[in-house]
Description:
The chain is of the alpha+beta class. The protein has four domains: 33-52 and 59-115, Immunoglobulins (Immunoglobulin-like, Sandwich), CATH 2.60.40; 122-223, Immunoglobulin-like (Sandwich); 226-333, Immunoglobulin-like (Sandwich); 339-386. Helix content is 23%, strand content 33%. The chain has five helices and 23 strands. It has helices at 5-23, 339-362, 364-371, 378-386, 388-423, and strands at residues 33-40, 44-50, 62-67, 71-76, 80-84, 91-98, 111-115, 127-134, 138-144, 155-160, 168-169, 174-176, 179-185, 198-205, 213-218, 223-224, 229-236, 239-245, 255-263, 268-272, 291-296, 305-313, 331-333. A five-stranded mixed sheet has the order 12-13-9-8-16, with no helix packed on it. Strands 4-3-6-7 form a four-stranded antiparallel sheet, with no helix packed on it. A four-stranded antiparallel sheet has the order 11-10-14-15, with no helix packed on it. A hairpin with a 2-residue loop joins strand 12 and strand 13 (179-185). Helix 2 (339-362) crosses helix 3 (364-371). Residues 33-34, 50, 53 line the site of one 2-acetamido-2-deoxy-beta-D-glucopyranose (NAG). Pfam families: Il13Ra_Ig, IL6Ra-bind. Belongs to the type I cytokine receptor family. Type 5 subfamily. Residues 125-226 form the Fibronectin type-III domain. It comes from Phyllostomus discolor (pale spear-nosed bat). Residues 1-23 form the signal peptide.
Amino acid sequence: MELPPWLCGLWALLLCVASCGNTAPTETQPPVTNLSVSVENLCTVIWTWNPPEGASPNCSLWYFSHFGNKQDKQIAPETHRSKEVPLNEKICLQVGSQCSANESDNPSTLVEKCISPPEGDPESAVTELQCVWHNLSYMKCTWLPGRNTSPDTNYTLYYWHSSLGKILQCENIYREGQHSTCSFTLTKLKDPSVDQYSVQVMVKDDAGKIRPSFNIVPLTSHVQPDPPHIKNISFQNGVLYVLGKNPQNFARTCLSYQVEVNNSQTEAHFIFSDEKLMCDNSEIEGNLEGTICFRVPGVPPDTVNTVRMRVKTNTFCYEDNQLWSNWSPAMTIGKKTDATLYTTMLLIIPIIVAGAIIVLLLYLKRLKIIIFPPIPDPGKIFKEMFGDQNDDTLHWKKYDIYEKQTKEETDSVVLIENLKRTSQ
Ligand SMILES: *[C@@H]1O[C@H](CO)[C@@H](O)[C@H](O)[C@H]1NC(C)=O
Ligand SMILES: *[C@@H]1O[C@H](CO)[C@@H](O)[C@H](O)[C@H]1NC(C)=O
Ligand SMILES: *[C@@H]1O[C@H](CO)[C@@H](O)[C@H](O)[C@H]1NC(C)=O
Ligand SMILES: *[C@@H]1O[C@H](CO)[C@@H](O)[C@H](O)[C@H]1NC(C)=O
Ligand SMILES: *[C@@H]1O[C@H](CO)[C@@H](O)[C@H](O)[C@H]1NC(C)=O
Ligand SMILES: *[C@@H]1O[C@H](CO)[C@@H](O)[C@H](O)[C@H]1NC(C)=O
Ligand SMILES: *[C@@H]1O[C@H](CO)[C@@H](O)[C@H](O)[C@H]1NC(C)=O
């Protein structure tokens, strides 16, 4: 039987359709529907979608999703996905459905939905928006103005975290040079089971002229403790013992320590941060809770040593270990030069020296006499012989002698004459 060529073609097509269906048992699903995106709080972005239309009844639906650039792939039965996103950049989610939780299952065609940053000139948004959680008691955020901003821009900072329930505005924004700063109270979490806990922060201006800027601050990092305090330092068997008090709110195991020792005599500057230097509680008498003890070898005793210490969070309890606390107040051990004594000495010494010089000048002549005995000075004698002052005397003496001699001679002449007269 001869079939017309067009019918043959149709037959082939039908065969193909049938065989294609048979050879692909992992039948690709229809795509999800009604994918939409919304923002809650400051920057909790929520994507929602509906199940695909016309899905196989035998299929237990799972949804495969990832963010743009194939990040954070996830397969879940829920028809929504959320993420805290600093909305400074566009972010997209792609979603597809599949019939199992198996990663190698072929999902349906992926549907994409994006959210764009708020409108406005990106150059107007504030930059370097950073926050540090101080002492687990307050959060301090700083930022720099954007490039296209007028200098009298009035900024507002909003913040949100899960235990607040609503968005709050930060009071008391102030400027420190180029930086603007605002701090708000944020105490330690009562529910430590929430580990994905963070604070959402947004900075914009009152007039709405700049583009809002966002930041998400994880509370497992960016923590700066208060400085510790040194309670006592002492030398025991030639080893320097430093006793410190932990800052409040922090357990000893969550902190790394640094001890600085400056020796005033050798001008040496040591920094110790070795955990091995920590001493047992038994090594120091009367050790109390919250006290930390260090034994620092190699510090010369009998000299003045100045000791300070500081702490930072460690990776046992926190995600970063970058922020050192300030230094504790310094404590000095050794023979201290009293500050008042030192200043008095500074004042008294020149006075004594000046007095001594005056006395020295006054008695210089006498001293000269003592130092240089007066006799062996031929110049002086020479000067005395021919000097003006003594000339007359000398002359007088000379004449005197001469006169005396003449007188004597005269006398003798007179005497002789007298004798002659008497003899005559
Ligand atoms: C998508 O949304 C529209 C309107 O909200 C609704 O009528 C429709 O049923 C939705 N589609 C699915 C598959 O749920
Ligand atoms: C669903 O699965 C059952 C059992 O595996 C099968 O008999 C039935 O034909 C399937 N239905 C469809 C629509 O694939
Ligand atoms: C996922 O599917 C692959 C092949 O499609 C199969 O080899 C693997 O065992 C499956 N894994 C699970 C957990 O079902
Ligand atoms: C650190 O936190 C504790 C307890 O929350 C508080 O008592 C202390 O005053 C705080 N320190 C500073 C410097 O604010
Ligand atoms: C900022 O506030 C001050 C005082 O309220 C006002 O004089 C100034 O014009 C404001 N700046 C802008 C850019 O609105
Ligand atoms: C410091 O420790 C030494 C040695 O334990 C002790 O003699 C001294 O009294 C302590 N000083 C203070 C102020 O606690
Ligand atoms: C210790 O010496 C270093 C380096 O000379 C100096 O930076 C530091 O301020 C000194 N510490 C104290 C407490 O004076």
